[in-house]
Amino acid sequence: MTIRTKSIAFLAAASALALTAMPQAALADHHGGNHAQSGAHMTKTSEAAPLISREALFGNPTRAGGQISPDGQWLGWLAPVDGVLNVWVAPANAPDDARVLTKATDRPIRQYFFAPDSQSILYIQDKGGDENFLMYGVNIESGVETTLTDFENTRVQIVGASDQYKDKVLVGLNNRDPRFHDVHLLDLNTGALELMIQNDGYAGFVADDNLDVRMALRPNAAGGMDYFKVTDNVPADEPFSSTDLADSLTTNPAGFTRDGSILYWTDSRGRDTAALTATDMATGEVTVVAEDARADIGGTIRDQETGEVEAYSVNYLKTEWTALDAEIGAALDWLGERLEGQYGINSRTDDDRKWIVWNDPLTSPTKVYMFDRDAETLTELYTSRPDLEGAPLQPMQALEITSRDGLTLTSYLTLPPGTDTDTDGVPDAPVPMVLLVHGGPWARDGYGYNSYHQWLANRGYAVLSTNFRGSTGFGKNFISAGDLEWGRKMHDDLLDAVQWAVDRGVTSQDKVAIMGGSYGGYATLAGLTFTPEEFACGVDIVGPSNLETLLATIPPYWEPVIAQFHERMGNPNTPEGLAMLKERSPLYSAQNITKPLLIGQGANDPRVNQAESDQIVEAMKENGIPVTYVLYPDEGHGFAKPENNIAFNAVTENFLATCLGGRAEPIGDTVKASTAEVVEGADFVKGLSEALQ
């Protein structure tokens, strides 16, 4: 949770160096099915647990993404209209008087925010998952909608917002050159755009509360970033600060105070984990605000008036908050005494007297409240997934696993219901397991409700997620330990996690599946090609099979940081680098696959092109190796539409049941209700051929 001084809470650009995707329904904040296929490896108590329906887990939430307007007059949230998530608003003093404000009829709206002046709702939307996000504004009173960035093949970024100029924001647009985002001043009420900076090589910009661009970021030869002061929209000739490759993912500017005198950083220079530091812009003096040897400083809560840090978080095994301001500390303590599990702040009013607070109780669905700090009241606004009330949701264990060379791998384990009767964290007898691998790889798994953990555990599997080397949040040394280790030491960490589970009695060696999206899809392919006997089967979702073609086809707006990909993955422009990329590409070892494989792909994926799945499927066919391939013509890097996500998960759980013997709802009409095209291998998944007839 990073709560800054603005209500604008998203950056409509993918984090550079992130291939992250898990194709679950949008904002899965969180009726059980009556039909099950039970396998021999389920315990009787697990078999007796109600089967949680895919619709309850992955369908549209009843409500999600609750926010309050900066002036405190309006509430907003996402809720379905004819099956598609749209933005709703209601007076803050009359939440039941809600009305839908947007008119999406195809793709769900997944990110929105109140304009700083509270006059309109702003949201972003792409087409078919192509990630060319445009920004739209809807006036709350009139309902009139305006396309604020009306360009083709353009992706908008938020550069800055202000408490002083509430009707304007700074945006980056790559409509002139798809590689670089020019900075414009956007009038939120008229849609007028004024060019501020033409960008011919910078990776990003930082602005202050005056909507003045104060800093420009540009990649350097050392694999990091150079930081340039900007005066009157002109970057300086020489950088005032720099990073190298080691610090490139753990050192970033974190914004100015309101008066522009202090620049905050998350900064790992001269240390391992990223500290929170404050630079005096007049003197250059740097003060360490907070640091933690276990993990990087994560989110912050800022003073709504001054922009000064009032609290910060550290996420090691779980998220922990430390308050620097006594009043904020008292508010967090008050909430902590009343809310079980994890909680955080979605949004705050300008006067900071009302907060929208989410609460993840871990084994019941997420609830969202309005917290009145003056009255000390907590008013429930909604439960995101009421169909999960009373469902057999399982607790997640946060734990540490040691790799073969001594690294600590923070990990998360969820067991099937009824399998751990003595509550020692180990099932009474080994159960099948799914190793669920996160994307990125420069991302991380965390603690809390996870729809995939709950779904798979309910089907009878232990579910293990491991932060392998290269994952972010644990310091720069842990990231750097993954450099040039795709398919090698990064994969070894996953194997070590499986061995830990086998040794502990969680599972047995021959009953482990590997599954993941994006980099997790790559890890699945690597597991079945480089270590073909380690896993019983695999589920690859939008995963790259050929690292050479992956790097050749990444979106043009990632060009400013392509050097970092080359340094961390392998440089295709050198003979040695190209040879390594081919060696680490599962495509060239497809003939080694001996275990069942399921692949899901979006046809419009700009990060991992469809060709990544097409080519390994073709290679497997040429070698006579069975594979099931499901393609979605209206999806990108993950499956945004609930009907598509549910359909793929229906195929997945029946695939896993065939392979590992767990439970599954029948596929039914889910595939027909989606846009899924089963390109290959319908016969290899129980019930799929029949579902297509």
Written description of the protein model:
The chain is of the alpha+beta class and 693 residues long. 18% of the residues lie in helices and 30% in strands. The chain is built from 13 helices and 37 strands. The strands form eight sheets. Strands 29-30-32-31-33-34-35-36-37 form a nine-stranded mixed sheet, sandwiched between helices. Strands 13, 14, 15, 16 and 17 form a five-stranded antiparallel sheet that branches. The chain has a four-stranded antiparallel sheet with strand order 1-2-3-4, with no helix packed on it. The longest helix is centred in the C-terminal third of the chain and has 19 residues, at 642-660. It starts with 43 loop residues before the first helix and ends with a helix. Mean pLDDT is 92; it is low at 1-17 and 23-44.
Mean pLDDT: 92
Question: How many beta-strand elements?
Answer: 37
Helix coverage percent = 10-25%
Q: Judging from the principal axes of the Cα atoms, what is the shape?
A: globular
Judged by helices, strands and strand pairing, the structural class is alpha+beta
Enumerate the spans where pLDDT stays under 50 for 5 or more consecutive residues.
1-17, 23-44
What composes the largest sheet? 9 strands, mixed
For the termini, the CA-CA separation is: 46 Å
Percentage of residues in DSSP E strands = 25-35%
Whole-angstrom Rg: 24 Å
Count of individual helical segments: 13
List keywords for this structure.
693 residues; alpha+beta; nine-stranded mixed sheet; five-stranded antiparallel sheet; 18% helix; globular; disordered N terminus
